[in-house]
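INPUT
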Amino acid sequence: MDKEADLYSQHAPGALRLAYVLTGDLDVAHDLVQDAFVKVLRRPGFLRSGDAFEAYLRTTIVNLVRSRWRRINIERRSQPILVRASATLESAVEERDVMQRALRALPPRQRLAVALRYLEDLSEQETAEALGISVPAVKSLVQRGVASLRRELEVNVEH
Amino acid sequence: MSTDFEVKLRQLITAVADEAAVRPGHEHETLNRIRTSRRTSVVGISVAAILLIGAAWLADPFSWLATALDDRKNGAATDTVRSPDARGKQHSDQAGLTASTLRLQDQPLALDGDSASVWVATGMGQLLQISDGRIAERYRAPVARGIAVEAGTVWLTGGGDGANPTGAVVAVDASSGRVVQTLELPGEAPYGVDTGATATYVAIHEGDLARVDRTGDITRVPLSEGLTQVLVDAGQIWVAEPDDGRVWRVPAGLDTEPSAVDLVANPRGPSCPQGLTSGAGVVWVADSCAGVVWVLDVSGKVLDRIDNVGTTPVDVAFSGRFVYVSSTRDRLVTQVDARTYEVVATGRSGRGASAIFADSNGSWVANLEGFSLTRLEPE
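OUTPUT
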């Protein structure tokens, strides 16, 4: 199990970050990452290392997130997260909170496309392959997602 | 090059992601589950294998052996692929599709054709006509997203994005390259387009289906955000909504209530209907998430499902006898008999296979990453 442990150590933190950005829920993100590792590694002799493993793990997480959304029929506009109790907020923290809410409010495919492009730094083609759609569709999803996020930041963050 | 906002966006998304730290014990739990699931898989596979072998033997003691020997003898050619049909049966006489590549200077984004030509809209705004092996540029336009060819007119949709904030639907005379009609949609992104006898229909990504009649009058009906492809067939308009796994069905006059075919609850899991075509009295829907082609009747009822059409089928086209399916991730192109719904041949396209067009002799596939078209014909 040393190889599996090495792969977990190397890839779990990044996988969790992606799952968290997509779901907004740390517990759910942990469950999805665990499910993804089990799916990928339970077959003996499967691909073990390198960029291909990371890509395959990422695709598995994307598919699990989509399955989860379909299964529980998530509302487009999710519940807002709790506002921190502190009376005064640093500007950076406030912006991050707004971004988190805004991400959760994005339609699922826009959220996926934005996360893959701006968190995972995938190219448009890589994003298209991960999502099983065309490059023009990726451009459209990202453009709309970014426009929505920009609007949320401009409206909700005090300067 | 990233804009200032994109740089900030990247920083903020990273800041959100930074909140996620792996909790103690998660690694141990995960590795234990992997170990346990492997043991379960080995046992499960052994039991299933015994049951399958026993069932095959009882059905016909020697046929399974004969099939295995035939497969080893036949092999596969370099450019052709053999695969089982939709029900898992091997066709002993199954053929492949031979492929040839036509290089382009730009990304082919949209594809359609008629009996004489194939028309391609590219990423740099070219409208190309391919006929008798020759390529001619007929028009230059903003980036085109959708294309439809009908009765000497080529309809293009595009814009409504960062580069071109105003969406546009343009009709170009095929022989002269002259624009004969323009519809502007400020702040909206027209996507799929298809033509009927008296009107052209456009799926607007923000949620409306628009009907443009020959006088230029426009009627709109709201459906749902995320509309992509549109198909005109027998007095009905079909619109794909991959985000929610739905295909909308709207009467051509837009005068009665639309209805939706909900594919999300299918047994294959997530559904992302993308490509649409009609033929042999039914509607064919390429579903890139479920990895199947759905067959719908005119009322929207799901009649059948075709498997083995690749991992990510994104588009589908009807040739008059066969349905061709393009699959992006594995570059598989599948030829399906439209009468029996069986896969009869497969071939390979280029990288980033997306749009597909079929004529009576074969199919054309747009390869986004390969900057090319692949022509596939039966052997």
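end of record. Residues 186 and 214 of chain B are 21 Å apart (CA to CA).
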